[in-house]
Specification:
This protein is an alpha+beta fold. It contains ten helices and 15 strands. It has three domains: 123 residues, no CATH class; 107 residues, Immunoglobulin-like; 141 residues, 3-Layer(aba) Sandwich (Glutaredoxin), CATH 3.40.30.10. A hairpin with a 5-residue loop joins β9 and β10.
Length: 396
């Protein structure tokens, strides 16, 4: 069912990594320069270069550099702190944006020969012609690969939803889809991430930063390929923060109070069962009632087979949390990290925001190693079933 999409995805990867070297024009000795020849801009039009600063749960634009169009051309010079970094080039008069991934010592040229003011698409990523920035070229190529990967895995998510809405859980059907998902991911790792050309490493690190919910162990291979300069860059630092949270790693410990004020440590929990589910949540999390009902049903079915749950709340008010515990009568262990300040935001990066906190399930084995991150629905049921019921029902 997925062979066509998967082959298309893998062919795109293979084509990308065998491309001829990316062209590089004469480089500046310090900082970057950007020269644009974009038809349709008027003399006096302003061009802004805004640097993106990524914090957990948010991205902020910081204005860095600007210029005005003169004789159909603009020229900007600036310095990229801890580059390479993502910049958004904004054309305010026509409200169009071009996303860039640039570094110092790059002389970048942009061209567009048609009338840009008549372009309906606000995002110009696939329209402008860029030269002089290997990191920017790699950025746009690697995002094309990620788009194909997302489409492939999105099809699997869609099929899982169809199964859930029609017949509920069927182990054989779900198992086939999970194998397809694993195969697509192995293709991404084996044909691309594990053997990156150095030009693609910064963009791959950036991709890992964007894909905050992706905890596949393959990102460790990307980090291992980075040199000291790239590890010191913003994508490198963000990727380094992700390393302890990858599948297969021992989940960082926490010690938090429960409803009676008793301290609960994560390191003491995995050995008490066959699987431990760590649930990050809050009383005002999106769609909490549905997530509550799902987890209660799975806990009832699998607790006696070795499933334990500890729920870590990021509520802002202790009384609200305690009242919810009393009302809901959750059968599992509950602890609180007020506002997520102790570990949820700073260590696990799973707060989301105080206005809309994440609900995230993380599965751990008996050693406290991460088995899966951000799983729910039929995917979560499949993990519980295959690990706690190793033999299918018809073979038991």
């Amino acid at each position: 069912m997925y062979n066509g999409k998967r082959n298309l995805f893998l062919n795109l990867v293979a084509i990308t990594i065998t491309l001829s070297p990316i062209s590089v024009v004469a480089q500046k000795n310090d900082g970057y320069s950007l020269t644009g020849h974009i038809n349709g801009l008027k003399d006096g039009d302003k061009v802004l270069m805004n640097m993106m600063v990524y914090n957990p749960g948010e991205a902020v634009e910081v204005h860095r550099d600007s210029a005005f169009v003169k004789n159909g051309e603009f020229h900007i010079e600036g310095h990229v702190p801890d580059g390479p970094r993502v910049y958004w080039m904004w054309l305010p008069r026509i409200d169009h944006v071009y996303r860039m991934f640039i570094d110092n010592n790059q002389a970048i040229q942009l061209r567009y020969d048609k009338d840009i003011s008549k372009e309906r698409m606000q995002l110009l990523d696939r329209i402008l012609v860029s030269d002089g920035s290997p990191t920017n070229t790699a950025f746009h190529l690697i995002w094309a690969i990620d788009d194909m990967y997302s489409q492939s895995t999105g099809m699997i998510d869609h099929e899982l939803q169809k199964i859930r809405d029609s017949i509920g859980y069927d182990r054989k059907l779900v198992d086939g889809l999970m194998r397809a998902r694993k195969g697509i991911r192995q293709g991404l790792n084996n044909r691309f991430l594990n053997h990156l050309d150095p030009l693609f490493l910064p963009a791959a690190g950036l991709l890992a930063m964007y894909e905050g919910g992706d905890h596949d162990g393959g990102w460790a291979d990307v980090y291992d390929q980075m040199d000291g300069h790239l590890r010191a860059s913003v994508p490198g630092k963000m990727l380094q923060q992700r390393l302890p949270l990858l599948v297969g790693k021992k989940m960082p410990d926490f010690s938090l109070p429960d409803g009676q004020g008793k301290t609960v440590s994560l390191k003491d929990l995995p050995s008490k069962g066959k699987l431990t589910l760590v649930r990050f949540w809050a009383t005002n999390s999106y769609n909490r009632a549905a997530f509550d009902a799902e987890l209660k049903a799975m806990y009832q079915q699998y607790h006696n087979k070795g499933l334990n749950v500890v729920a870590v709340s990021t509520d802002t008010k202790l009384d609200t949390w305690k009242q919810t515990l009393q009302t809901e009568q959750y059968p599992w262990q509950n602890v609180i990290d007020l506002r997520g300040e102790a570990v949820v935001d700073t260590v696990y990066h799973e707060l989301g925001s105080l206005a809309g906190p994440n609900t995230t399930n993380v599965l751990l084995d008996t050693e406290g190693n991460i088995v899966a991150w951000d799983v729910y629905g039929l995917e979560l049921r499949w993990y519980l079933d295959t690990i706690l019921n190793p033999e299918p029902a018809e073979n038991r």
